[in-house]
Structure formats: structure tokens, C-alpha cells
Specification:
The protein has 9 helices and 10 strands. The protein is an alpha/beta fold and 226 residues long. It binds tricarbonodiimidic diamide. The site of tricarbonodiimidic diamide has 11 residues, from helix 6.
């Protein structure tokens, strides 16, 4: 078992039963002309999450631990996109419209791909999801059961939308969830801060959070403790 100094208290995980879940590190949320920007957001905030997420990916890969990536995407015919989602608000471009990176949030479009710094490597699982939560209308539950996983380490964007929704879904399904603080971002710094607070409030009502360096050190120090 590995113990991580986390909030609201130590997070203990069995490395043989733990996966990294990287949520929606897609060009559509991070780069100009994508979904995030068409909604009117300042996408520059996303930059902060890229290097920490890449470091976390490197750590899991070096240890041979499973990595799962998600992408928020829709079918080309929008059959999995509720009209309420597409029609809400007045974005510059709606889901399915063509922007500078192809059709917004459509599976296979350049903008729907994961940014190169966090791109999946051979053997890693990629889950396309039509909702904010990664368990809704996907086979993520079956994938995790197949891996024999009980603990999930989270990274990705955005903190209060797809990351938090997926952490809540995972929590309800019995998974222990740890969010790495620098490896997630919101378009709204105050929403990120509030989300970290609400995840770990009430004795970890949703899960735990910890800084990346603390997680890295906890993993590194294990051989000496064994
Ligand atoms: N808009 C926003 O903050 N996020 C999303 O729409 N999706 C994800 O968080 N991936």
C-alpha cells in the first residue's frame, strides 16, 4: 500500500488496484477556436494543467499502472447529443458546427483530439463520453471492473464540470478518488478553489486532493518503506 499525505487526511492506495483517469485534455477545451472558447471562456487558464498532467502520466507509465483518458465527444450525426445541450445559451459556435479545428466536439475532428503533451500511448484506454460524467453512457464501469481497480487518481479539465462530475459518479460507485491539485484547471480560478474545497469537505465527502509533488514523493519513497 502507498500512503499519500492528502486532504482531508491520508489517502492510502494499492498500486495494483489503481488507475489514473485523465479527463478531457482535448484541444477543444484548451486551444483557441474550440468548444471552451466558443462558450466565451478565457482558455489561457488551461495552460497551467498541461505540464503537471504530463508529469503524472509519466509517473503512471514508469510504474506500469493503468491510464485511462476520456474525451467529451459526440457522434457526427449528433444522435448522442441532447438538443438541450446543443441549444443552450448563445455560443459563437455550437456542438457540431465547423470551427478552425473542425466540427466542435465531434468524434474524429482535430479539435476533439487530446493535446499532444498528454496524448495516449499504446495500450492506454480512451473513453469517448457524450456527457460531463465519464460513467454516463460509456463502458467505463466495465473497464474498471476488468482492471480490478478500486482507487482512481484524477487529472484533467475542467475541475468543476467534467472532473468533479466524474469524481462524484465514481464516489457513488464505491471508488476512492484522489484529485491532483495542479493537474486540473477551470476557466474560473474561484470555481477550481471551491471545487477542491467541496471535494474534501465533510471528511472527504467526494474524495481527496493533494499537490503533485506530494504524490510523486509518496510513490518514490515506497521501495525504502517496503
Ligand atoms: N465548459 C466546461 O467548463 N467544461 C466542459 O464543458 N466540459 C469539460 O469539463 N470537459
Amino acid at each position: 500500500m502507498i500512503n499519500v499525505d492528502a486532504a482531508p487526511f491520508a489517502f492510502t492506495f494499492d498500486p495494483a488496484a489503481t488507475a489514473l483517469v485523465v479527463i478531457d485534455m482535448q484541444r477543444d477545451f484548451i486551444e483557441p477556436g474550440g468548444f471552451g472558447e466558443t462558450l466565451g471562456n478565457d482558455i489561457s487558464h488551461m495552460q497551467r494543467a498541461i505540464a503537471p498532467t504530463a508529469r503524472l502520466l509519466a509517473l503512471f507509465r514508469a510504474n506500469g499502472w493503468p491510464v485511462i483518458h476520456t474525451r467529451e465527444t459526440h457522434a457526427a450525426d449528433l444522435s448522442d447529443c441532447p438538443p438541450a445541450k446543443r441549444e443552450r445559451g448563445s455560443p459563437a459556435l455550437r456542438i457540431g458546427d465547423t470551427g478552425p479545428m473542425g466540427r466542435i466536439l465531434i468524434r474524429g475532428a482535430p479539435g476533439a483530439e487530446i493535446i499532444s503533451a498528454c496524448a495516449p500511448v499504446t495500450g492506454e484506454i480512451v473513453i469517448d463520453k457524450p456527457g460531463k460524467g465519464a460513467f454516463y453512457a460509456t463502458d467505463l464501469s466495465a473497464v474498471l471492473q476488468g482492471l480490478g481497480v478500486r482507487s482512481l487518481v484524477f487529472a484533467g479539465v475542467t475541475t468543476e464540470v467534467c472532473v468533479q462530475t466524474t469524481m462524484r459518479e465514481a464516489n457513488d460507485r464505491g471508488y476512492e478518488c484522489l484529485l491532483i491539485e495542479e493537474a486540473t484547471e477551470s476557466y474560473f480560478p474561484e470555481f477550481k478553489a471551491a471545487t477542491l474545497d467541496m471535494i474534501r469537505a465533510q471528511g472527504g465527502i467526494v474524495g481527496w486532493t493533494t499537490p503533485l509533488a506530494t504524490f510523486e514523493q509518496s510513490v518514490k519513497r515506497q521501495p525504502e518503506q517496503a
